[in-house]
Each structure stands twice: as structure tokens, then as C-alpha cells.
Write a structure and sequence with these properties.
about 375 residues, alpha/beta, Alpha-D-Glucose-1,6-Bisphosphate, Chain A, domain 3, 3 domains, about 20% strand
Amino acid sequence: MLRLGVLPTPAVAHLTAALGADFGVMLSASHNPAPDNGIKFLARGGFKLSDAVEDEVERRLGEDWDRPVGSAVGRVRDAYGEVDRYISHVLTSVNGQLDGLDIVVDCAHGAAHMVAPEALLRAGARVEAIGARPDGLNINAGHGSTHLDKLQQVVVSRGADVGIAYDGDADRCLAVDHTGAIVDGDQIMAVLAADMHAKGTLAKDTVVATVMSNLGFKLAMRDAGINVIETAVGDRYVLERMKSDGFNLGGEQSGHVIMLDHATTGDGLLTSLHLLSVMARTGTSLQELASIMTPLPQILINVKDVDRGKSAVNELTDAVAVAEAELGETGRVLIRPSGTEPMIRVMVEASSKDQATKVAERLADVVRVACV
């Protein structure tokens, strides 16, 4: 067994494939606090396990087995030096350098605290790292992609060009432009998709997103001549569709972006390098690049203590049809039952926040009455 040390999940995924390992294991709280630490498994080749395999693993956990003892247990060998292999990999995926860019990077007191600043420095950027002092307990605490306030403050006070925020295991990233405005995963995907489309490297002129991606993203891609394929919520479903149909770019609004030409999973460092590369190569600010799409106001109401199995009852589907007719092409309704809780999620997008709120509240009231 090889012990890699503190590395992002996508680094473990890459090294699982590069070193020909049978599987990879990552211990991380992901974007959650330290008490939520868990285990991520990666199959041979660096891909996440399928739902079917995960279910089979869980099913067999209680089985009796012949536990190895003594020398049969095996040996652990430290392979901390492999971090350079990963950094070199992500840097070689980017054409050009980041010379002249002034970047603030928030590492969420997590797995990217060493590799992200080092990679950005090697690419030629000026870098200030925050959230880069993990103590084993402070992962995602007040820093990272789930807590952007500190990054916004530092970017503006420093007069930096851009801020990048990773989550604890660095498989996702969000950004902040020079004014402190947040650039989310949909906007990042839009910038990358448009750039790849212009270079002729976007497979089948298509990007894969989930049903939760903002309608503004889909409208922007339509205007750019790019197709959008939707999947269920979850990066594994995005990846499955990308692999099955030969697409090379996909992701989620949360900043989990998959660039399948270079990685087997979402990779926050890789994503940020490609985003920053577009800025450096074109001499365009992130604010201007992100303006390719205008996010529509999005209201999400979680209606609790209802029967999630009744999300398709006639009363609700009729109410949704009325709402969709009212919103037209500049709005959208999504009704999603929770997979684990007695809850139905009502999401509405519209051209104004007031309209989105009114429609969402009206539909939530229908759920409370019709789905009990």
C-alpha cells in the first residue's frame, strides 16, 4: 500500500491511474466540517465507484471473512514524492502561463493547502494563500467554497485580479472576481465551454449539467451554439453521461467541474488553472468573462414533513403546468423529492426575484396540501 499524504481527492484519482493501483482511498470531510469525515473509494483507473458497486460493498460489509494476520497484512510505504507528479500533470494540461495574474487562493484549511499555491506559483502567478493552515479539525471552518466572505474581503482589499476557493478535498472550486462578486460553477462552466467551443476542443459542442443548473446557463449556451445535456443531481451522474456519450466537459453549480480530457473526476485545481488560463491568454477580467451568462433569480423551498412519493400527484402537476405557462421561456420549475427525507424540493427560476418567490411559495403551498 502506498500512503500519499495530504492530497486532494482528484490527486488520489490521478495517481490511482498513473501508478496502476487496484484502487484508491481518500479520507476527507469534502465540503463539510471535520466531524463529517468519511471515505471515498476510487476504482482502478481513478474513477469513482458506481452506485451498483457501492451498494454491493455495503451489502457485504457484514459478511464473515478470513482476516489476514502477520505478514499477510502487507506493508505501507510512504510515497509523498508523488505530489509532484500530480502538480506536473495539471500544469501540463494548460497552454500558457499565468504571468501577471494576482491571485488569492482559499484552501479551506484542507487538502489543497500545499499543492494549489505551489502549482499557481509555478504557473507564474502572484499568489496569496488563505485558509492554508489545517490542523485536522478546522477543515472548511469559515473558509473555502462554502464560506466565501473572507476571500471576497481579501481580494478587494489586496486589489487582486481574482480569488479562487476550493472545498476541503479540492474536487471543486468557486471564484471571486476583482470586485468581490461570486462566480459560481455554472458561470465557470460557461466560460470554459465557450473557450473550448472557440478552440474546437469541446466534444460534440456539448456540455453536461444537472437539472439544478441555472436557466441562465442554458440560455447562454444556446446563444453560443452549445448544446446542454441534463442529468440528475450529482457529479457521478454527470460523469456517467459524459463517459457513455463521449462528452468532455460537465459539472454542477457547486463548482464540481469535470474535464474528462485531463481528469477522471472533478478537480478544483485543474478547473481553476483552466479558468485562469483563459483570463491570462485573453487579457480579459473574470468579471467580463463571467458576463457570458446572466444568472436568473433562483428560489428553492424545501417543503418538509410531506410524502415524497406524491411529487407527481395531479394537483401538483396541474399547478406546475400553470406556473410554467406563466413563466414562459424566461423561467423554470423543478419539483424534486428528497432521496432520503420526507421532503419535496420546489425550485423556481424567473426573470425577477419577486416573481420567482411568488411562484415558488404558491407551489410549496400546493405541496403542503396535496402531498400529505
